[in-house]
Amino acid sequence: MSRLTATLRRFTRAALPLALPLLLAAPAAAQEPIRVGTFLAVTGPASFLGDPEQKTLEMMVDKINADGGINGRKLQLISYDSAGDAEKARTFTKRLIEQDKVDVLIGGSSTGETMAAVPLAEAAGIPFISLAGAVVIVEPTKKWVFKTPHTDRMACEKVFVDMKARGFTKAALISGSGGFDKSMRAECVKVAPSQGIQIVADETYGAADTDMTAQLTKIKGSGAQAVLNAGFGQGPAIVTRNYKQLGLTQPLYQSHGVASKEYIKLSGDAAEGVRLPAAALLVADLLPAGDPQKPVVTAYRNAYQDKYKTDVSTFGGHAYDGLMLYVNAVKAAGSTDKAKTRDAIEATKGYVGTGGVVNMSPTDHMGLDLSAFRMLEVKNGDWTLVK
After folding, report:
1. Whole-number average pLDDT of the chain
2. Strands (E), 259-373
3. pLDDT for the residue 12
């Protein structure tokens, strides 16, 4: 054996123990999970939003992982229950970014939670897809922030268009005191003139109120031809029951913030005839065969109801769209690099989701137009599609 060969062998034997951990670590690093961070109102007064959102994310992460993950990498869902509290949302967002090192934020069941998290996501440079409704989330446009639900402004416009089609030009507003309620009320007041609608009454109620007959009595004598309740949670169901008790006959409209069977259950037969704008998901079977959303909303609804044995809601659909927008962005970018996935989300075109067909742009971080809303009416205790 030559002196050179012996030296090389001794070097190899000495270096191998040092190199082996690196060699073994390389495949493991390549399979590092994609960390999806979320904070949702799973419990508390907004649990009707957060619970189906959480269930949807868990269901879809399991499905994606069972199908092999994204580009060979599995998803890891890291979740916190903010219970609808903005301060908790801020704390959990900070933890998700700094400790959990997530690749994306999907969540914020309510506007308050979302807006508490926005400055942290912007400062950290991490894609954040909100599941809340207020237009302030995406207007003005924020570099790292996107949202999946239709905005409160769109809801106002859709309702006013329907009122005009029915020959109504005088409307009354009644709204709650939450972030979404206040935002939607302000948007409705703002857009009413452009839609040819005069607001003749404008009443509010508190989060803890259990009777709105005083406000509705004022509306009854206002000359309003139709009434719109801007709100979500228990309040709109109370308004609906009080509406019938007082014998108001003007058409009652609700926001997309109550677009679930739970609202009908809470309102009982008083909900009969109520109209609201909502996503196609609630009327999947009523969509025409050629509707591009029909296969998407039908598949999601069936999977959700089969797994959880409960009715689907548009809120779970918002979470489905949020996750799939991110999944598609990772595939398009070929990476989980935050800047690249942000750019890919912003470049989304033609994504068919439960909320509509999404076309994002640098100035539109929601990507839905008014056609994404369907006008629904409660008939015989169920949703029907207004033609």
Report:
1. 92
2. 275-278, 349-352, 357-359
3. 46
The upper half-sphere exposure of residue 245, i.e. CA atoms within 13 Å in the direction of its Cβ, equals 14
Residue 25 has pLDDT above 70, yes or no: no
Q: Do residues 10 and 1 touch, judged by C-beta distance below 8 A?
A: no
Instruction: Please state at what angle helix 179-191 crosses helix 152-165, rounded to 10 degrees.
Output: 50
Does the pTM exceed 0.90? Answer: no
Please state, in angstroms and rounded to a whole number, the distance separating the CA atoms of residues 45 and 112.
13
Check: CB of residue 138 under 8 Å from CB of residue 192. no
Contacts of 108 (CB under 8 A, 6+ apart): 39, 40, 89, 114, 117, 130, 131, 132
Dihedral angle sign, alpha carbons of residues 65, 301, 314, 80: negative
Q: How many CA atoms lie within 13 A of 311 on its CB side?
A: 17
Q: Residue 173 pairs with which residues in a beta bridge?
A: 202, 228
Q: Helix (H, G, I), strand (E, B), or coil: what is residue 169?
A: coil
Give one DSSP letter per residue of 101-123, joined into a string. --SEEEE-SSHHHHHHHHHHHHH
User: What gap in Å lies between CA 25 and CA 22, rounded to an integer?
Assistant: 5
Size of the chain in residues: 387
Please give the structure tokens belonging to residue 251. 């058409």
Q: State the DSSP code for 229.
A: E
Give me the residues paired with residue 172 across strands: 201, 227
CA-CA distance, 367 to 350, in Å (whole number)? 9
Contact (CB, 8 A) for 335 and 341: yes
> What is the three-class DSSP state of 172?
strand
The confidence score (pLDDT) of residue 205 equals 97
Name the residue type at position 166.
R
CB 286 within 8 A of CB 267: no
Distance CA 214, CA 225 (A): 18
Domains by residue range for the chain, with CATH: 34-150+292-369 (3.40.50.2300), 153-278 (3.40.50.2300)
Closest-CA residue to 276 (of 245, 249, 240, 311): 240
Count of other CB atoms within 10 angstroms of residue 161: 16
The enclosing H or E element of 12 equals: helix 3-30
Alpha carbons 333 and 17: distance in angstroms, whole number? 37
